[in-house]
Every structure is written in structure tokens, then in C-alpha cells.
Amino acid sequence: MLPDEILQTLNSEYPCRDSQIQQLAALYSQHLPSPPLLVAHGLTATGKTSIIKSYLRLSALPFAVVNSRECITGRHLLERIAAACLDALDEFGDEAVDRRPYARTENLSSLAVNLQRMLEARGKFVLVLDGIDKQREAPPTLMAALGRFGEMIPNLSIILISTLPLTHLIYTPSTPHIHFTPYPRSSLLTILSASPPKIFPTPPSTDQFPDYTPDLALEDDAWLWGRFTSAVYDSLTKHTGRDLDSFRAAAHKLWRPFVEPVVQGTFGTRDFSRLMVNRRVLFQGEEGVLDRIVASESTLADTTSASAAGLGSATPLAAKRRLRTLAHDLPYYTTHLLIAAYLASYNPSRTDVTYFMKHTDKRKNRRRTGAPGGTKSKHRKISRHLLTPSPFGLDRLLAIFRALLDGGVPQVADLYTQIATLTSMRLLIRAGGAGSADVLDPGTKWRVNFSWEYARSLGRTVNIEVGEYLVGGVD
Amino acid sequence: MEHERCYIYTPPEAEERPSKRQRTSDFNPQSQLAERLSTYRKIWAQQEQRIQATLEEADSKTQEKIVNFVSASAPVENAPQTSIPTGLVVAGPSIASHGPFFARLGRSIRDETNSAYVVLTSAESPNLKTLLKNLIKRVTSRIEEDDDDDIRPTASSRHGPKVLDFDLSHVQEWQKKNRTRSIVVALQDSEAFDTRILIELVDLFHCWLDRLPFVLLVGIATSTESFEDRLSGKSIRYLDGQKFDVTQSDVIIEKLFSATVANTDVPVRIGPDLSRRLLDRQKDHVQNVHDFIDGLKYAYMSHFYASYPTVLLKEKVAFKDLSSEAFEAVRNLPSFKRWVEELLDNNQAHDVRKLLESDQYLYQQVTEHIESGQNALNTLSNAATLLTCIRESLQMAPSIRLSNIWTRAAAGELSGAPLLRETLLSVKKASSDKLAPLFASLKELDIDTSPLDQDIFQKELEKLVEDNVGSGPLRSQDDVRNDSLRTTVIAQKVLLSKHKAALSEQDKAYSSLVARFNDGLERYFASAFIDPRTLFLSEILMYDLKSPHTEVFQPKPRFAMERALASPHDYLGCDCCSGKQGGESILSTTQPATAILYQLYLESGTLINVSDLWSAFNAIAGDDEDESKTM
């Protein structure tokens, strides 16, 4: 393929990356010499890996790609580099390379020797190391050594792909860098408009709408999608995630609920402004940009249907509340233990007397609540339940536990077993006292590992209003 | 003593005989143990079968869903996956039951889909390397069983670069040969995994997703939100899944209870006290299905081990199989004594004499009574199930579970109880649109409701409903909607009077139907809800001893220790330190040194001066020449 053709293909496949592709083409061509080391850097989803891979594939240069994410240790990376180079040579060369001399690549020097032997009397070879800055357990001299490989192996040129420029790690002067800049708004919209999704999952029946041809549908899709994506960008992804991936994900997530009235026939395909007003809830809430493992189609649908019913913005909150319910009930005493642990974590221990002593001095027994009427303190304090939990000792937990319960604790309540179980469920975690193998060592400090909502819903299952015991109150 | 390494301790010789007399007769407490054992095994085998069936049925639905998810998420040709299919299995807080659940799940996944299935636990995955090694070992080991005769073309050291043993290329090689649809990796206890390992694992799987069809199953004890909170946004973007809820353990316990205790075809049951204890333990302390099963099994074991007359429970036990000791044991049962007294009150002294003298006659009576007692208990269970079903289909509040109703019935608390009266009243008030589903659900019940003639009622009801011309359902005369209040003002006093609205013909017919049904129910419940403890041989048919269960499953070590130290007399039973009229904390010289020390410790504050402690101890524990002994 001629260089111009390559550029044309790449530009059509990866729009808005002209300058980077040009630089690549200038540095790596069949006949001109290439730099021994190149750093391609840029934020996530800026097309670094895919553009470099496609370019090398089109340019017919022999090359090998090793993904650092797949390598568990530094040694693993070296072994994989050797294996990948051998595979690539097999693919590009005429006869198979004798693999026996390359059985082991323990360290950087043996990699250098192996590569030297491999590439002896061959043409130019490009080695791409993807995400090299994320390599686990990388040897400290990895980058510097890679930078100097070119001195020993003249026909090898290495491309390092990383998030940030590696200037301080490479001691070789004048290493060329290619910066893959983040896409600006216009480029993002251009890229997304290249493949508009359909408004109608199944095309409307031809009997009813005989003049709605597929061509017309395509035109409508592109028109509405273009408007829609710019609205999504301006309202949501501009503030939450500007990269291509999250923008695309958010747009696709919101598209179905957005065009629902069109599919139902309430609005025409070009009624964009009325559609926007009708579906404004989508752009006000955060559901579209939150990542979830379980696809939350149902909650989106709920909010939209509720908004259609005219309930306004109260529903998203309610939907969120519902998400935070307990999946399974815990036993009675275990629940109390967890509540006690939460209180022990979030109440300072000096207030325990006020809150949990059954009988005490009347003078002392004045609970401080949120903000005493009228006099607002000058310093704004962060509500306690928004801070990280503080560690507490086991004896304090048990004391609060007993204070919470109405009657006594039966002798048969195996509290330690329950604490151990909660630990293995990571609801309680050990904060200090590490080094002792015994989980229930008295010196161990503990912390809770759940949030205020969870504690409150726990309390409601056993009729305890946790907020009443919390210093400073809540809400 | 101090210069010797060891010495022989000679206890002071006691002059008198031990206070407890030795048993001198050659009584064998374990006679016919083998028969009892075999009977136990037979009966428990039936129970175990029921338990297994219940457990499997309980999570079969979830398992089926998961299997469908796995087979649906296998990659399709030419459509690259962008995220790892993930099943979030919310398995509940009973961690002990996760293992068997995932084992069962693995079996059904392997059987029904062409996938490899690997379970990883947190204990064997302290870091990513070990985790991957385990994963590779388990995925690829299956092949070795299948065909190990052909030479595996591994990229071993002789042929080229060595593949490290945590490199997923091993799995890729294996996948190339086997072409499984998907590789299912189950993380059994996701909470206990290190968060960093989880994130790296997700990252790695995502990298390999274009070559290896991974499916991730995550066992979660708390909630999916807390799992999501632990992962970074990037990792979550790599996952795309579905949530599966495993049946809550209290629901399973309820099912187990109705299958094993409140079932109609059980020869031996646990009694109300014990079952209440078992159920309370589930509610208050642990949620563990296996704990419940173990408790039940232990009850059965101790019943057959410790109680000699249980040999009579053997199916078709013949007279010649039994020794006279068995009959002697029966004659010593409290329920036998009650029965005999009852017979004497009825002036059947002749029968009583025969019972006491003739083993043969007693044998006949016992076999008859065992059968009738079992029938009575079956009827009781039947009635409890029926009552629960009625309450459920009338949607009465509060909803009371079968286990609760059964326990109360078995304790003899239900005959004439408010619960029963209330239920019968609502049956009386029920309109025809409620009664029809009630009949339907009664029909579905797997119990014998023949004494109710429910089929006849149902047919009549159907006929009445067919003939009903009015718009609303038929109402009985007790229905509140047929009442109207009339106020009359006479001499400035307001009188309220209730009036029945005039009933139509059909309503009248319906009312009589309901009344008959209600009467039938009332009679049935009255005859069924007896106090089972008044039955002759109830000790054999029902095991209700609390203490063996408590000692094994709910021991109180701390309490026992404290009691032993605080009042050693309770355990030693000697005369010397028996507290004078219950004075438990009286320190005396005769108490063991440890007990004295413990009580001194209790009296002191948080910091103890050793010298003070020693002098106090010395003051109590005695004089100087005794010192060597107390040491």
C-alpha cells in the first residue's frame, strides 16, 4: 500500500487524528530510517493503541505488540516480549525461526542478547509495548534500558505507549514523543455521529406509513442523534467524563429512554425541543453517567415513566433509596452487633456515658443535638457520618452492644463467632493490631465498613432508630 | 520440693467410702443398641432424603437462572464482547452454605452448558499470581482426564520461550483444543478477597476477553451495592451483569421444618420446646441451614441412643425380638403411669393388672398405641398445615408461619386459642370470591382433608357462584357489609343498634354453606389439636429434651467457668464448702485456691497490687505450715 493510501484509510477510520497519523507515517516508513525509541502518550480512549496497531499493520512493517496489562511480573513481560517477537518473525519471515536458543529470558540483559540474536541480519523491526507505565512489578531500570536498546540493536525500534510522557524515566536525550491529545467537543461529536443508532428498534409497518422509507429513517436517526449527543455532552459528560468511552456509554444508555415517546408516537421524529422538555429528567439526574454492573434499565425507565405521570424530581431519590435496602436479613443479635459497631465507630468515646449509661448524673445527661436553636457555630463542621469511621476496641463494641439491648444477653449468644463471621463478610474490618494471627485478640482495633444508610436500615429491622444514638444527629 | 524436678503426688487417703454408691448389678444400659441404631438409620435416611430434596428444590430456580445466564452470555461469532458477563449471586449471610451452593451450581453448569467451571475462594488466593496458578491448574486439569495420550504441544522450555505458570496462555492453548463455549470463574466469597486482587483480576480478564470467553460469577454475602462500592469505576465499566438472589435462609428453614417435622409421614418428631429452641437460634444468632439440620440429627441420635423404649419404633417389631427389660422400661414411663391411673379411674383394674403382669398384653397395647399416637400426631400436623393455608389464602394479618403454628399446636396451646377463633371467624365472614381460592388452595395441599368433605362444599359453591346473578360476590350473613348501624335518639340518648340487611336467596344459601363448612372446620380442629404430651407413649413418639441440645449446640463455657470458680460447691458437692444457707461468695479456707483467687480478683479494682493480693490470699488460705500444700 502506498503511504498516501494508508493515510487515507486511517483518516477515514479514525477521524480527528490527522496530525498523529502523519507523524507516525513520517517516522515509520518502509525505506526511511526510524527512531530507536518513540513514546506515544495520551489519556485513555484517545486512540493510541488502535491507531499504532492499524498503521503498522497497513504499512507491512514486521512488528510485535505486547500488552503490559497481561503481564503479571517484570519477568513475565520479558518472556512475553521474546515470545511475541519470535511469533512476529515467524509470521513475517519466510522460514520458522529456531526457537531453542531463546528458552529463557530472565532479565533485561538476556532480553537484549536474545533480541540481538533474533534480529541479526534482518530488516527493520518494530516492537510496541502497550501501557508500559502500568506494568506490575517492573524492574526499576526497565525504561532506561529499553531506551538504550537501539544502540545495541540498530534495526530495532521500540514504541512505548503510556498515559503520561516518560521524559523523566528515559535517560536517552531527544526521544521523539507523539502526544495523542484528548478529543475536544467537536471531535467527540463528529466521531459519535459516524454511527447513529436507530430510533425505531423495529421499523414502523409499511402499511401504516408508506412514505417512511428506510432512507428517510436513516436521515432522521442521524439528525436526532446529532442533536441528542450534543445535548448529552453539554449537560452531563462535560462535567463527569469527557473521554470518548464514557461519553459514548452515557449517550447509548440514555438513547432508548430518550426516544421512547417517539417510538410510542407521542412526538414526531423532528420534535427535538419538545422531546427535550419532556425528557429533561434524563439530563438532570445522574443515572446516565453512573457505572453499574447490573444494567439499571429499570430505574431509568421508572424515572421516566414517573416523570411522565407528573411526579417531578422526587422520584429519582425514591428510586435510589430503594436500591439501598438490605438484600438479606441478619439474625437479631448480629444486627445489634453491627449497629453497636457503627455507633462505636462514629461516636467519640467520651460521649458514651451520655448516650449509653442507664443511670447517670442528671447534669451530665444532656444530649447535644444537631444545632442548638438560634446560635449557629461559626465553623462549619462536616457531619460525622460523612467522615471515615474511626477505630474502636472490642470491649467498647461489646459494652455498647449490651447497652443497646433491652434485656440481658443470653449466655448462649456466641458473640465472638458472630464477630468473626462479620469480619469474613467484611462488614467489620480490623484496623490495627496487625501481626497477631488471632482475629479476636483484645488489642485489635476494629472499624465498620458500611455506610450510614445501611446502618439505618439495619436499625429499622430491629426497631432501633440509630440516628438517636449518633452524636450530632443526622439529616 | 524445690530441688526436685518432679515428685509423686499422693492424695490424702479418704477414710470413708465415697458418698455415691457404686452400681453393683450387671445392668446393661446399652441393650439392643444395634436394633435401635438400625431403626435410627432407617428413619434418618428418610429424613435426609426429604432434606436433600427440599434443599435442591429451594435453589433449583436460581441455579436454572444462572445456568441460562451463562449459556446466553457465551460469545457470538464476529461480535466482540466489550465487557465481562458477570453474575452477582447474592447468597446471603450464611457463609457456610455458599460452598455447597457453588458446588451444586458447578455440577449443573457443567452438565447443561459446554463450559469449564472453576471456583476460587479467598483463602487460596492471597495474591494474583497464586490465584492465576490455581485457575490455570483447575481449568486445564480437566483435559488430562479426557485425553492424555496425545503429546501436548505445550510451549515448554525445550521448544522455545518458557511460558510462566501464571500465564493465561496455558488456558488459551487449552481453549484452542477444547473449544468450550465459556470459562466460568466463580469467586465464592467475594467479600474476603483483597480489593486490589479483584480489580487486577477484572482488568486481566478484560484484556483476555478477545481470546478467552470468561464469565464471572461473584458470590456476595451482603449486597450488590457494597460489592460495587469496592470496585473502581473503570473495573465496573468492564463488567456487565445480572443479579441473582438465592432463597433466603429463613424461607429454606421454614420449608425444611414443614418437610421434616410438620410432615404427616414422620414416625418420630422433635417436640415443641426443642423446635422452638432450634428456630429461635436461627432467628437470633446464626442463619445456617446446616446448623438446623445438625440439630435435628443430633436430636434423633440422642433419642435413639438414650431411650431404651425407642426400640419399639422399629417397623413391625415382633414380640420375640423384645426383652422383658423393654417392657419394664415402658412400665416406668410417666405417660404409662398416667394412662394406668386413667384406666383405674375408669374402673378397669383388671386391664391394669394385666398390663402390669403380662408382657404379651402390654406388647399388643403398645403396638396399637404407637400407631394411634402416630396417627394423632399426623392429624395434628395436618391440621396445622391446614390452618396455615387458610390464613394464607385469606391473607390474614399478621402472617404466622407454619413452624410457629405447629410448635404451638404441639405444645397443646392451640385448642381454643384466640388465633384459632380469629381464623374461624374470618372464614365465616369470607365472601365467595375469597372462599373459592381457599378451596382451590386446600385442594392443592398434599394432605388428607377428607374429614371436611371439602369436595362437596366446593361443588356447591361453584353451583352457587354460577347461579349468582348479582354483580358482587356472594356474602355470608356474618359479613360486616351486611350489617348496618341504626341510630335512634330517644330522650336525648343515642341508641345504636345493628341490623342485618335483608339477604337474598343465594346469599342465604351461601351463608348456610359457609356455616356448615365452618362447623366442619371447628370440629376437625377440636379433634386434631390435642395436647400430644397426654398421649400414652408420647415420650417415644416425640423427643423434647432440651439439655442435650443445649450442651452441644449452645454451650456456655464462660458461665460454667465463672460458676465453678464463684461457687465451687456446685460442682464439687463436698460437705466442707457448702455455703451456709446459700451464701455463695463466702470465702473459706476449704475452697480450692483458684476459686479463692478468682473471688479476690473480682473484689479488686482494675489494678491489683500483687503484694496485697498475696496477703489477702494468705489471710484466707491459712496458716504457715499449710503453705506448701496450697502451692
UniProtKB/TrEMBL annotation, chain A:
User: Origin recognition complex subunit 5 C-terminal domain: which residues?
Assistant: 330-470
UniProt region (Disordered), positions on chain = 361-381
List each copy of the ORC5 lid domain by range.
Answer: 225-284
Q: Can you cite an annotated GO cellular component?
A: nuclear origin of replication recognition complex
Q: What is this protein called?
A: Uncharacterized protein
Any one GO MF annotation of this record:
DNA replication origin binding
Taxonomic classification: Eukaryota, Fungi, Dikarya, Ascomycota, Pezizomycotina
Q: Where is the Orc1-like AAA ATPase domain?
A: 15-159
Q: Where is it predominantly found?
A: nucleus
Question: What is stated as this protein's family in its record?
Answer: Belongs to the ORC5 family.
- List keywords of the entry alphabetically: ATP-binding, DNA replication, Nucleotide-binding, Nucleus
One GO biological process term is: DNA replication initiation
**This protein's record includes keyword Calcium:** no
Q: Where in the cell is it found?
A: Nucleus
Entry-linked InterPro entries = AAA_16, ORC5, ORC5_C, ORC5_lid, P-loop_NTPase
Q: Does the keyword Metal-binding apply?
A: no
TrEMBL record, chain B:
Q: What is its main location?
A: nucleus
Keywords (alphabetical) are: DNA replication, DNA-binding, Nucleus
Q: What is the annotated localization of this protein?
A: Nucleus
Which InterPro entries does UniProt cross-reference here?
A: ORC3 (IPR020795), ORC3_N (IPR045667), ORC_WH_C (IPR040855)
Pfam families, per database record: ORC3_N, WHD_ORC
Q: Which residues form the Origin recognition complex subunit 3 N-terminal domain?
A: 4-306
GO cellular component terms, A-Z: DNA replication preinitiation complex; nuclear origin of replication recognition complex; nuclear pre-replicative complex
Q: Name one GO biological process term.
A: DNA replication initiation
Residue ranges of domain Origin recognition complex subunit 3 winged helix C-terminal in the record: 558-629
| Protein name, entry field | Origin recognition complex subunit
- This protein's species is Massarina eburnea CBS 473.64
